[in-house]
């Protein structure tokens, strides 16, 4: 029973990722990413990482995916969403990816790692202790990073700034035309 | 080691490799910046899954792995916010989100 659910979740995780990689419609790609993210949260629960699973659902599914869908809707004037990258055709990219995956799986099976059966238990207390003892510097730096991110995103989308950039872009085009 | 797939670390690691490969393929082949961001998110998630797996299948769970997974989630969210802000600023200027329309810094 546990294995049946595990296989279902694994198929959803990998299938969502493949949908993101192969779909020709950007909305389908975003929904594939959503499916993959939720299934990865389920895989965290299989490994007794309850706190990480909940953060994954809250931050990724509730935050990042909504932002991503908003951006897709806002930039929908740009047509030909999934034109491929001219510098990298599908076949060489596939070759690179298959070689990478083969090497990684070969390394996994030739490394002779010793694993033990995992122990299930609550994790929130230990994560809190680690964040406030061993990783306190990282914790504070992340707070600073989030402030910088908020200010940066606000500044970047200020109206005057964008207008100025549009105006200077128009000027440079005029100059080019004058030179011609 | 038990025979259950869900209690075998290799199955998680192989899922992680497959998701990472899908993300890498997306980043390599797409021209749309939004799709490239999606590929980066997939790769970050695959590495976080690896951290959790290696912290779980030990004699006693190593919670530093969980801390790193949470840091990856937070940094990915920050990166997505800034990247999408840049993308919307670019889109307001030139009505396009394709990487080869944004080549002003090319020498």
Layout of helices and strands:
The complex is a heterodimer of chains A (180) and B (107).
Chain A: H1 2-22, H2 26-46, H3 50-74, H4 90-110, H5 124-132, H6 136-156, H7 159-179
Helix pairs in contact in A: 1-2, 2-3
Chain B: H1 9-29, H2 33-56, H3 64-94
Can you characterise this structure?
The complex is a heterodimer of chains A (180) and B (107). By secondary structure, chain A is mostly helical. Chain A has two domains: 1-77, Four Helix Bundle (Hemerythrin (Met), subunit A) (Up-down Bundle), CATH 1.20.120.1200; 124-180, no CATH class. Chain A is 77% helix and 0% strand. Chain A contains seven helices and no strands. Chain A has helices at residues 2-22, 26-46, 50-74, 90-110, 124-132, 136-156, 159-179. The longest helix of chain A is centred in the middle third of the chain and has 25 residues, at 50-74. Chain A is extended and about 65 Å long. Chain A starts with a helix and ends with a helix. The mean pLDDT of chain A is 85. Helix content of chain B is 71%, strand content 0%. In chain B, 53% of the residues are buried. Chain B has helices at residues 9-29, 33-56, 64-94. By secondary structure, chain B is mainly α. Chain B is elongated, with a radius of gyration of 18 Å. Chain B has a single domain (5-101), classed as Orthogonal Bundle (Helix Hairpins). At the A-B interface, α1, α2, α3, α4 and α5 of A face α1, α2 and α3 of B.
**Under the CATH scheme, which class of the largest domain in chain A?**
Mainly Alpha
The proportion of strand residues of chain A reads: under 5%
Strand tally of chain B: 0
Oligomer designation: heterodimer
Mean pLDDT of chain B: 88
User: What percent of the residues of chain A sit in helical stretches (DSSP H or I)?
Assistant: over 70%
In N-to-C order, the SSE pattern of chain A is HHHHHHH
Count the DSSP helices of chain B.
Answer: 3
CATH fold group of chain B: Helix Hairpins
Reading the helices and strands of chain B in chain order gives: HHH
Q: What CATH architecture of chain B do you see?
A: Orthogonal Bundle
């Amino acid at each position: 029973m546990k294995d049946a659910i595990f296989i279902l979740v694994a198929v959803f995780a990998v299938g969502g990722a493949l949908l993101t990689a192969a779909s020709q419609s950007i909305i389908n790609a975003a929904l594939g990413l959503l499916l993959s993210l939720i299934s990865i949260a389920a895989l965290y629960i299989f490994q007794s990482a309850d706190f990480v699973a909940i953060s994954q659902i809250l931050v990724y599914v509730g935050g990042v995916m909504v932002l991503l869908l908003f951006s897709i809707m806002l930039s929908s004037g740009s047509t030909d969403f999934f034109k491929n990258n001219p510098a990298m055709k599908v076949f060489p990219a596939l070759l690179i990816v298959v070689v990478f995956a083969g090497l990684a799986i070969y390394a996994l099976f030739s490394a002779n790692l010793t694993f033990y059966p995992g122990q299930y238990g609550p994790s929130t207390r230990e994560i809190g202790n680690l964040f406030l003892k061993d990783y306190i510097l990282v914790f504070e730096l992340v707070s600073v990073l989030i402030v910088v991110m908020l200010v940066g995103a606000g500044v970047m989308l200020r109206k005057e700034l964008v207008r100025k950039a549009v105006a200077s872009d128009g000027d440079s085009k005029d100059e080019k035309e004058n030179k011609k | 080691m038990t025979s259950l797939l869900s209690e075998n670390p290799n199955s998680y690691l192989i899922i992680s490799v497959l998701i990472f490969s899908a993300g890498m393929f997306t980043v390599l082949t797409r021209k749309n910046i939004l799709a490239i961001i999606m590929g980066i998110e997939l790769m970050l998630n695959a590495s976080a899954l690896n951290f959790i797996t290696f912290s779980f299948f030990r004699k006693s769970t190593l919670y530093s792995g969980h801390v790193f997974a949470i840091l990856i989630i937070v940094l990915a969210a920050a990166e997505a916010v800034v990247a999408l802000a840049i993308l919307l600023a670019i889109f307001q200027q030139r009505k396009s989100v394709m990487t080869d329309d944004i080549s002003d810094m090319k020498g």
